[in-house]
Design brief:
It is found in: Secreted, Extracellular space, Apoplast. By secondary structure, the chain is α+β, with helices and mostly antiparallel strands. It has helices spanning 8-27, 181-186, 192-199, 203-213; strands spanning 75-80, 94-100, 105-110, 116-122, 125-130, 136-141, 146-149, 154-159, 165-171, 179-180. The strands form two sheets. The protein has a five-stranded antiparallel β-sheet, with no helix packed on it.
Amino acid sequence: MADGRTTPLSVFLSLLLLLLLSAANGLVQDFCVGDVTASDTPAGYPCKEVSEVTCDDFVFTGLGTAGDTSNLIKAAVTPAFVGQFPGVNGLGISVARLDIAVGGVIPLHTHPGGSELLVVIQGTICAGFISSANDVYFTTLNKGDTMVFPQGLLHFQINSGDVTAVAIVSFSSPNPGLQITAFALFANSLPSSLVEKVTFLDDEQVKKLKEVLGGSG
């Protein structure tokens, strides 16, 4: 039963709590605009000196311009990640614009660093993702519709209409990362024999895909 006396352990725990609270309060700051001339780290970019920060660091104007969709996938992504938009450094957010021409596709891909929220602002998009249990969730999205793609899961977007589709996507990370499955498999120098083993495709198919996507081996 407590007798109201303090013990060395309770004193130590109280001091530790005070130190932790003091350290946490000392780290509180309004922002940490990324110094993108330095190296990125898992914790983000180092902060620019506040005296060097300007309003431009908190503004990104590129999402008002359509991306160039004259490419293999007939789609373009205009990112406003920390590398292009230093003001989001350390804030756990970023944004991008998707332009998908008629017949275009954002192939199966993942963002290992963050979840994605998509809002359609023009056209029609068939979008979906695959869970770690291989369950598939996909639907057709129209103007104003929103869909979320959980962090790290394979997902895709396809223009399923007859006009260019446009969407704004936001992320729960200033640098969500990107890996496109087809490019990861066929746009590298991994020997074709190994790709055939891990994909169950035959040699002709693998070499054809490597040629189309720029791989070798």
